[in-house]
From TrEMBL:
Membrane-spanning ranges: 113-135
Species whose genome carries this gene: Micromonospora mirobrigensis
AMP-dependent synthetase/ligase domain segment(s): 62-446
Region of interest called Disordered, as start-end residue ranges on this chain: 605-626
Taxonomic lineage of the native organism: Bacteria, Bacillati, Actinomycetota, Actinomycetes, Micromonosporales
Glycosyltransferase in keyword set: no
Domain Acetyl-coenzyme A synthetase N-terminal: residue ranges: 4-58
Protein name listed in UniProt: Propionyl-CoA synthetase
Keyword vocabulary terms for this entry: Membrane, Transmembrane, Transmembrane helix
GO cellular component, one term: intracellular organelle lumen
Ranges where the AMP-binding enzyme C-terminal domain occurs: 511-589
Top-level taxonomic group: Bacteria
Gene Ontology MF annotations: propionate-CoA ligase activity
Family, similarity comment: Belongs to the ATP-dependent AMP-binding enzyme family.
InterPro entries named in the record: ACAS_N, AMP-bd_C, AMP-bd_C_sf, AMP-binding_CS, AMP-dep_synth/lig_dom, ANL_N_sf
Amino acid sequence: MGAYRSAYERSIADPTGFWREAAADLDWFRAPERILDDGAAPLYRWFPDAELNTCHNALDRHVAAGHGDRPALIHDSPVTGAVRTFTYAELLAETARFAGALRRLGVGRGDRVLLYLAMVPEAVVAMLACARIGAVHSVVFGGFAAHELAVRIDDARPKVVVATSCGIEVDRVVAYHPILTAALAEAEHAPERCVIVQRPQGPAELVPGRDLDWAEVMTDAEPVDCVPVAATDPLYVLYTSGTTGRPKGVVRDNGGHAVALRWSMRNVYDIGPGDVFWAASDVGWVVGHSYIVYAPLLTGATTVLYEGKPVGTPDAGAFWRVIAEHRVAALFTAPTAIRAIRRQDPEGELIRRYDLGCLRTLFLAGERLDPDTWEWAGRQLGVPVVDNWWQTETGWPVAANPRGLEPLPLKPGSPSVPVPGYDIRVVDPAGREAPPGTDGSIVIRLPLPPGCLPTLWGDDERYVRSYLTTFPGHYLTGDGGRFDDDGYLYVMGRTDDVINVAGHRLSTGAMEEVLAGHPAVAECAVIGVADPLKGQVPSGYVVLRADAEVDEAVLAGELVALVRQRIGPVAAFRRVRVVPALPKTRSGKILRRTMRALVEGRDEPVPATIDDPSTLTVFRGPGASP
Ligand code: COA
Ligand code: AMP
């Protein structure tokens, strides 16, 4: 039996033995004796009696082992021209001091700290500093607007907010500080303090009594040590889009997370101490949490923090420049980024300008990897292109090709096989297992392995209702797909109202809430429509109130501006069209799936329950997509 098959089977037959062994790769203040607590099933907790500190395992441990001079973090920022390397000893010194600064501001174990930061080293320092003192960080992606920030502030109730004065989008300075101020004006919860990282490209005018300057709090901060926390204590809360406008606060524990990420780095990504790993994502997304910050540092590898884009900073060769300059062994990015590069450099001429001999693997995730992009990247780079499928909730890959454990044959269109720990099933609507080749809902049999969400922040009930109720005993991924005869999984897309725009997960429900708030709109629907660059883009359809007197083009402009202002530029909402009516079932449910199929020109049986088939006409043929 191959190494993969035997590890997989053991992980399912003997999960406690499997994860007990994996846990031995970490330092514990109190080593786990009990591995899994299933006393409150379907809620499970890993390593219930253990204590550790994630920051200790990410930094102190490597310095104590004599690796203080090894590069830990390379900040490469083409938008500012800065390139700076922090050794493990330097990153530890900064982190211990900022942890001291946070403690002086009254932040202690279990307190939340909200981070709204550009891709600067302070983001990594602040995350690790929270971990060091047992505080819970909640990072909000910079592309979200004030309202989204306010919603997260009210749910997480942070004691302190840490923000950069601005972000830089290619050549445009985006002032973050006014967005923070607007969010605080909207939020009911008031944090005690805001710590602002002042950037010379766009310094903020600090608010007296509320804001402190990062540089000043660091000057006289005393470094502090790691505190032991329970393995089950939360390390962070990361909000992700659900089907409604209210984001879900995905909770990550300390122990299971560290064990799973450490295991994945070696066995999935084939990265060891001293290797350079680059996840070209953002710390505001789960890929950034897991594979920019925690997994590479827990491994003693070097991580790259890149403040730039795949194209435009300055050109489509930017990724290859970074790989060659920092001797990157593996790049992890989203298929969209590769499509954007390909569009500008279809023959790969810029690729050949750089020495990419160091690159062993390209990992792609965040959205479906289309076989065409897979084939192009493999041909141009001459390295394996490895799709991996997972989500914010799981925190690490659910299906992947386990490069470190046993590289398996790659198949285009498939993220390969279930990762050890994940008992994946494809089921029909009645919960019966679908045979190979048949599409169904992808579910994971409980318990989920370590590292996956134990619950939603402050809301066990919502966790159970959203994920564990549809198919009892199983976690609902929200994705649909199938297995083939070789046990390879094919993930075809979401079965709910979540869409994926340029690798960013967004809720159509949230956009609908914004559109419905416009006085001229009687009802509306937002669907994700296939897009050759971004995978999907949102398209809005609105029905006007009978008494509305508006110019349709003016209204469309107002609605686009409203979504940008409420949700943020990242929603990429640019298309909206006025229609006479929306297709609905007789019970009033909007037929979004049918709309999407028609707009994309696919054949889809029209549900027999449709109320008025003539409502479908406007969604057919060219021009159906706004
Ligand atoms: N702060 C402020 N604004 C931000 C932002 C941030 N951190 N990130 C994105 N935005 C803005 C962009 O400036 C853009 O604004 P615009 O409408 O004024 O142009 C908008 O949000 C959409 O951004 P983006 O999705 O990045 O689209 P783009 O057209 O600028 O770039 C790609 C297209 C494909 C190059 C880009 O989407 C990309 O790199 N995608 C990869 C995503 C990724 O790595 N995801 C993580 C999963 S692994
Ligand atoms: P996020 O929570 O932002 O990581 O988004 C998770 C969602 O992105 C999943 O539920 C999938 O719909 C999609 N996704 C992520 N990776 C892949 C992949 N490799 N193949 C297909 N879909 C993916």
